Amino acid sequence: MEYKHFSHNHTLTLHNIQPGQQFQCHGCHLQCNSDSIFACWSCKFFLHEHCGNANRYVKHPSHKLHPLILMPSSTYCSGSFLCNGCGAPGSSFSYCCALCEVDLHVPCAYLPPKVSHRSHQHEIFISFQTTDEKGSHQSCKICTRELSSKHWSYFCDKPECDFRVHTFCATTEVKPGLYQDDAPDQVQAPVVFYI
Ligand SMILES: [Zn+2]
Ligand SMILES: [Zn+2]
Ligand SMILES: [Zn+2]
Ligand SMILES: [Zn+2]
Ligand SMILES: [Zn+2]
Ligand SMILES: [Zn+2]
Fold first, then answer.
1. How many angstroms does the Cα of residue 13 sit away from the middle of ligand 2?
2. Where is the DC1 domain positioned along the sequence (predicted)?
3. What pLDDT shows up at residue 187?
């Protein structure tokens, strides 16, 4: 079976990763070492299945004003963006709102709404809010580094717990298909399609 992705000129095949194999995903620059990847072997172009299947448009709870659009590369002259979710730079795929200068890594856009972490007895929930209490410098309860008030975090909603952590400390899980497609009125072709 062959596939076509809007970010790449050649057809892709779905490859089941064998134990010991490792590839770098072109969409998020993270390693893929389990499940399947979309591959163009001649270009050594690889995509996680979830990065390849990521919706072109997404209605994201962190930015309700506008749909976020999947861009194959950064829209900024510098060639990179700063993720509004985790604060780290990115230079590959992003979900962006050009009007509001919102940019998200694909894995950050699909972070699970709640996770369990062995360092805390309760489930923790994602917060897209900034924790802007003036003068309060919170640090992450897992890595102890500062929590930026501008970025997302996971927190325990129990009032007796003062537990807040970086998103990237809480989980590396990605939940593809978490949010509904928010395509504009005309019918959008799927991002990956069979040929
Ligand atoms: Zn990826
Ligand atoms: Zn290629
Ligand atoms: Zn991010
Ligand atoms: Zn916007
Ligand atoms: Zn942390
Ligand atoms: Zn708790």
1. 11
2. 6-51, 61-109, 119-170
3. 47
